[in-house]
Amino acid sequence: MAYEIHVSTSKRRLALLNNGRVVKIYPIGVGKMLTPTPKGTYTIINKQLNPGGPFGVMWMGLSKPHYGIHGTNNPASIGKLVSHGCIRMYNQDVLALSKIVPIGTKVRISQT
Questions:
Q1: Residue-wise pLDDT tens digits, 48-58
Q2: 52 — phi, psi (to 5°)?
Q3: Catalytic annotation on 84?
Q4: How far apart are CA 56 and CA 95, in angstroms?
Q5: Helix (H) or strand (E) holding 42
Q6: In whole angstroms, what is the distance from residue 6 CA to residue 78 CA?
Q7: Bridge-based pairing state of the strands 30-31 and 21-27
Q8: Cβ neighbours of residue 98 under 8 Å, at least 6 residues apart?
Q9: Tens digits of per-residue pLDDT, 9-50?
Q10: Angle at 84 between CA 82 and CA 87, to 5 degrees
Q11: Which of 6, 66, 70, 84 is labelled catalytic?
């Protein structure tokens, strides 16, 4: 199976694709105006369960240093421009996603 993640910062949603077909869409929080989520194509390079701090129950690091997809201890922030550039998900969503996508999964972040 060829999984890929597409992130739309304007729609504040993350789409999980399998062989080019959308299988699930998740609501997300993204970077605020002064610290926007970086556009581009990256890969998931590591995963950490219960990383501590504001990252909720899961951290999936991207190939762009210091950026990742993670849970949150502030669920009210989902759907908003709030982070320092990372992609925030509800804890149950990031756990479910982390069980599906392997390290090496491509993550495409765009405005659209």
A1: 999 998 999 99
A2: 85, 175
A3: no
A4: 10
A5: strand 40-49
A6: 17
A7: unpaired
A8: 47, 58, 60
A9: 999 999 999 999 999 999 999 999 999 999 999 999 999 999
A10: 75
A11: 70
Tens-place pLDDT, residues 63-97? 999 999 999 999 999 999 999 999 999 999 999 99
Contact status, residue 63 vs residue 46, Cβ threshold 8 Å:
no
Straight-line distance from the first to the last Cα atom of the chain, in angstroms, rounded to the nearest whole number: 25
Could you tell me which of 99, 103, 98 has the C-alpha nearest to residue 46? 103
DSSP 29: B
- CA–CA separation, 28 and 75 (whole Å): 10
Both tokens of residue 30? Answer: 């993204």
4 DSSP assignment:
E
User: Is residue 15 left, alpha or beta, with left meaning phi > 0 and alpha meaning psi from -120 to 50?
Assistant: beta
For residue 109, is pLDDT > 90?
yes
1 pLDDT above the threshold of 90:
no
Compute the distance between CA of residue 48 and CA of residue 72 in angstroms, rounded to an integer. Answer: 14
